[in-house]
């Protein structure tokens, strides 16, 4: 068993060099950060404007929707910051770059996770602002209490784990199919967009899809039922954490199995 | 003839990826389905004005299908990629102007997307929902014109985005900002008349409503055909701007050896 500390140190060194290479183009870095924040805000405005005009969506207020939205944004930000190139595995498979990673004296997944580290400042700013804004309002109205803060932090971490597991499992499918972009649109983009809204606005087949097939519902909707509405009980939060750990283990096993079947596309 | 060949080559090249694109359609249908569910949810509690629930599901179905004509163009018409690889120098040397050259290629792409994305997506919604369809042939004709003009506008906007890469090294983020603006200001999810007043005024100073909102209103027989004049004006203005930018691009381009 290799000790954890040297790995963490190595991880930090590789992340720092990845970040330094991105900062070579400062104007580009600042512009992309600002525009990313704008895109996120525009996305939320799309729903907020509807709520401003019509009020609630099936009983969920604009603050509750803001909360769901912020949890998804922050969880996704952690996942995509720490494992940016897991999402971009297709490029490695198509261009044969994965072969280079296979020759490194570190696990392939570790090497992949340290490539092209992205500090998603825009998403962090937007997600944090939205979370504080919605939680502050719900705390003032007595809907949330002090314990909601640690619950929310736990929810963001378990959410990031779930999204990472889904992303890793989707990427692993690429060891057989090479192209994964279309599948990612379904399991990541569409699923994450869907879970920005309360799942009960969807018909039961679609709701079940987002709970049991691509379980993005556990990122924000399921734990929110307890945190925001006090439904079911604290065990809902524990189940969420349990689901995230189970998904992580399963996706890691699927990744290892997929990697053992990897055949290079050649030159 | 040259332009037609460029367009048909782009169309044929895409045919190779039909299977992958059809899978992508599932995700695209899902997006629209989710948005329709939101409006159905809202419509249960509130009246949805002139549209009603059926009108709003028809609205979402049409905008979701039209996105493949006026929303999802090739990022910057491929110019940023050419800038990175140096191909742009060769493209500028060709005995054909860069703007119509890239535009012809993009029309082939749009024709493909219309056939293999817009139509299948709309047909699926037609089966899933009770959609409104035009009753008069003149509406069909006006909708076609509105969509062609919207496609032209989308090509011009993407050309502008692409050309900026010669100064900014990458225009990825401008492309995604353009998409965010489509979501918000083109009436993709919310009809423009439901936006706050200041936002409505802002919209009509931009070409965005002509990308989705105007064609959709015409299709649903809620909008006047003369709103196409606005589309035409924007087409002329953006064409002139694209020609001007090409001149600037010629002066800026540098060949750095290799």
Automatic annotation (TrEMBL), chain A:
Pfam families: ABC2_membrane_6. The keyword rRNA-binding does not apply. The chain crosses the membrane at residues 29-54, 151-176, 209-228, 234-255. PANTHER family: INTEGRAL MEMBRANE TRANSPORT PROTEIN, SLR0610 PROTEIN-RELATED. The keyword Transmembrane helix applies. This is ABC-2 type transport system permease protein. It comes from the Bacteria. Keywords: Membrane, Transmembrane, Transmembrane helix.
TrEMBL record, chain B:
The chain crosses the membrane at residues 21-42, 110-128, 140-161, 173-190, 226-246. The keyword Transmembrane helix applies. Signal peptide: none annotated. Keywords: Membrane, Transmembrane, Transmembrane helix. This is ABC-2 type transport system permease protein.
């Amino acid at each position: 068993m290799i000790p954890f500390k040297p790995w963490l140190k190595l991880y930090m060194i590789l992340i720092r060099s990845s970040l330094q290479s991105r900062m070579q183009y400062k104007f580009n870095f600042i512009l992309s950060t600002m525009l990313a924040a704008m895109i996120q805000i525009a996305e939320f405005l799309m729903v907020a404007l509807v709520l401003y005009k019509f009020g609630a969506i099936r009983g969920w207020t604009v603050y509750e929707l803001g909360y769901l939205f912020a949890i998804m944004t922050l969880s996704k930000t952690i996942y995509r910051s720490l494992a940016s190139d897991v999402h971009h595995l297709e490029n490695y498979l198509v261009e044969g770059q994965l072969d280079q990673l296979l020759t490194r004296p570190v696990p392939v997944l570790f090497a992949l996770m340290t490539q092209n580290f992205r500090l998603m400042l825009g998403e962090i700013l937007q997600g944090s602002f939205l979370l504080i804004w919605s939680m502050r309002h719900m705390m003032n109205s007595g809907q949330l209490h002090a314990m909601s803060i640690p619950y929310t932090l736990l929810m963001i971490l378990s959410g990031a784990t779930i999204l990472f597991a889904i992303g890793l499992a989707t990427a692993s499918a690429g060891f057989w199919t090479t192209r994964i972009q279309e599948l990612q649109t379904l399991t990541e983009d569409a699923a994450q967009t869907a879970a920005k809204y309360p799942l009960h606005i969807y018909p039961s087949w679609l709701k079940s899809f987002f709970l049991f097939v691509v379980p993005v519902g556990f990122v924000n909707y399921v734990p929110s039922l307890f945190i925001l509405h006090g439904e079911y009980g604290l065990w809902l939060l524990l189940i969420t954490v349990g689901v995230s750990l189970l998904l992580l283990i399963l996706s890691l096993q699927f990744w290892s199995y997929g990697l053992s079947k990897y055949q290079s596309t050649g030159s | 003839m040259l332009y037609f060949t460029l367009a048909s080559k782009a169309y044929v090249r895409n045919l190779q990826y039909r299977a992958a694109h059809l899978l992508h359609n599932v995700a695209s249908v899902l997006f629209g389905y989710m948005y329709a569910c939101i409006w159905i949810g809202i419509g249960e509690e509130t009246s949805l004005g002139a549209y009603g629930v059926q009108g709003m599901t028809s609205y979402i179905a049409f905008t979701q299908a039209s996105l493949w004509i006026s929303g999802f163009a090739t990022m910057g018409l491929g110019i940023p990629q050419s800038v990175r690889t140096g191909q742009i120098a060769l493209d500028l040397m060709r005995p054909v102007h860069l703007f119509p050259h890239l535009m012809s290629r993009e029309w082939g792409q749009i024709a493909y997307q219309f056939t293999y994305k817009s139509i299948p997506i709309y047909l699926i919604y037609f089966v899933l929902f009770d959609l409104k369809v035009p009753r008069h042939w003149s509406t069909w004709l006006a909708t076609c014109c509105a969509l062609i003009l919207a496609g032209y506008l989308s090509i011009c906007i993407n050309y502008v985005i692409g050309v900026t890469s010669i100064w900014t090294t990458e225009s990825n983020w401008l492309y995604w900002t353009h998409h965010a603006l489509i979501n918000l200001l083109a009436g993709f999810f919310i009809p423009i008349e439901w936006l706050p007043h200041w936002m409505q005024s802002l919209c009509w100073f931009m070409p965005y409503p002509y990308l989705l909102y105007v064609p959709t209103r015409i299709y649903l027989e809620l909008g006047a055909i003369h709103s196409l004049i606005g589309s035409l004006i924007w087409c002329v203005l953006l064409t002139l701007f694209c020609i001007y930018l090409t001149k600037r691009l010629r002066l800026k381009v540098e060949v750095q050896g290799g």
